[in-house]
Fold:
Amino acid sequence: MTFAGWATIVLFAVILTALALPLGGYMAKVYSAQRVFLSPILAGPERLLYRVFRVDERQGQDWKAYAKSLLVFSLAGWLLLYLILRTQNAFFVPHGLNPLGYHSAPWNVTFNTVSSFVTNTNWQYYSGETTMSYFSQMLGLTVQNWLSASVAVAVAVALIRGIMGRSGKSLGNFWQDLVRTILYVLAPISVLGALVLVSQGVIQNFSTYLSAHTITGLSQTIAMGPVASQEVIKELGTNGGGFFNVNSAHPFENPTAFTNLFEMLLVLIIPAALVFTYGRMTGNRRQGYAIYSAMMALFLVAVVVAYVAEAHGSPAQHAAGLHTHAISGSGGGNMEGKEQRFGIAGSALFDVVTTVTSCGAVNSAIESFTGIGGAVPMANLSASETIFGGVGTGLYSILLYVLLAVFIGGLMVGRTPEWLGKKLEAREIKLAGLGILVTPLAALFATALATASHGGRASISELGKGPQGFSESFYAYLSQANNNGSAFAGYTGFVQPNAGNVGSHGVTFADLLGGGVMLFARFAPILFALAVAGALAGKRVTPAGLGTMRTDNPTFVVLLIAVIILVGALTFFPALLLGPVVQGLTGHLY
Amino acid sequence: MRRDILTACIAMVVFTVLLGLVYPLVITGVSQVAFPGNANGQKVYVGGKLVGSKIIGQSFAKVVLDKNGKPKEEEGELLTQADPRYFQSRPSATEGGAYNAAASAFSNRGPNDKATEEADAENIKAYLALEKPYDPSLTTAQIPVDAVNTSASNLDPEISEANARIQAHRVAAKRGLSLSEVDGLVSKYTDARGLGFSGEPGVNVLELNLALDRLTAAPR
Structure:
């Protein structure tokens, strides 16, 4: 561990908070249909889009209508993406967009990939540079990076409206929330961010792969592509699907320590800002600060544990006789699966940033993390996107936990629970409880199925022996259920002997189970969140009395943290023990 | 319902054109004008020939020749060995030979795997065999971790400064330079941390080797 490492972590948290506060205020205006500084430029295109889409954006939707629009839109996106990926070498695709003449991946891998991108998961059994043409990457995958993120933000905003709703049942208009998210939030940051990335060395071209002859007489082929435009929205929309197989570890996706910092900020900025948006929109900013404090506390604990564990080094390194402490000119630590330019701190921090959110981009090999270092991302996933979480997803997930915490707090003091002036009754608690439980349920059920069946074990990598093999399976379904997308990457769902997909085949069991889990664990919680919004929207507001439990003070922050840890620990602790914790407690090699 | 379907279909087509075509093309256009070097991968040319990318790691090994002067092959792959005149990159385990930049891949070696220990031990042995003759006091305990652990991308363009300082002994001897001359070059090509605090300092191996070649025409 080094001073610079700790400084990186502290400064990151400070910069993030400083940027999220103003963005949160800006977004609150955007979703309250107020004028913002971009309105003069964007109001025209916005109106034009509504006309083309044939929607009346002023018409409010109740929760069922809102959900219906959302589901139909997601289904249309699913079908179009499947079509694009399966036709990447069809006659109508210009050669310039498929310069290497790649064929399509098989149906089962494509089913998994499409479900993955439409659900904001970006779990990847395929490897970008040997599977996807530029056509698929741009028109298919990049587009869903934008849309799946916007859909989730829309749900979060609808839930806020439900909570603060004073009259009627309207949660707003889905199409308006979708368009405003894209135009006012994602587009400005993406365009600027992409150019910042290129200025630091991320590539952006349509060249065919380079063929170099090295100074020692070897030849090297170097993959190319329009990377920056996809990279920025991959981070900003907490999508996480890399252009290249090794994601943000690839020097063309993440060339310097500065871009590493920049990309981590892109990942967390919207999830962090939305918490402040919530505070603003409910008219009590302290509500946002309270939730933010709970998130930040859990986040920092995770970072510290991961950094300490990785700086310590792994049993395999020590058995080989390596000394892993920092020396002059080398930071030491577990550098297996980590890049020199990021070092241990830059890798551990990125790992936590990407697993507390639903991003899943990685700049280091999570499978090579130490036992405890690897338990951190799993614990983050076990918190079901409540520690910042994905864009939109994070806010609606934590608000369900807030509701649960208010309910538990109410039980403890023996009063009818109230939240922001609204009485919580059986219906809301039931819906929130279900919304909280579907993700762990999907993760554990799929893991059990995969580890207990022959078809599931076929995906475990050759190297994954003992607890490592269990960790691979558990991580795969935990990640897909949380719509995260990071992986113990040895787990296989696609066998590809040659670049370009000739002779390749998918592992049907892993592809279909994973795809099903992603779809279920994405849309079920969305429906529950919207149903909660619908149930709250029509309720009368009563002024807070003396007996009302406050949800904006430190006591509540502690209660909220306790509820998150309690639910996560009760559901996932046995599974965590079987994999990473066993490894962390022993120096034994398998 | 029918209205939703119509809107969803129109929206998908419009967004695909705007976000999947117009947006990447605009970014490409601006990048190619404003940052052409970066946007095209920071290509490095020597004598008009492309030798690689500045930020993609590569192997500084040479092909092993058999008695008849033909390249030796083993299991369909060219047999190579480290070229001692050059600084060596980190170990790389990409398919089809080290530093295959057309198929980046994680090594996925677990922290408690015997296979990981064996790979580390093999890399330690190779490192000592290469460096110890020129740096006799070198022991396993002194080898920096990056010299034997594979990177995440397996395309890491950098090595740690400590790793470069050890290799400097060999390179200086092989090229008839003084150690301080080579150390001076190492210092020159060691990057600082990002913004002064972020990440780790590292040495860009390709740039360092090219600088060496400019200093001394590589002796055979």
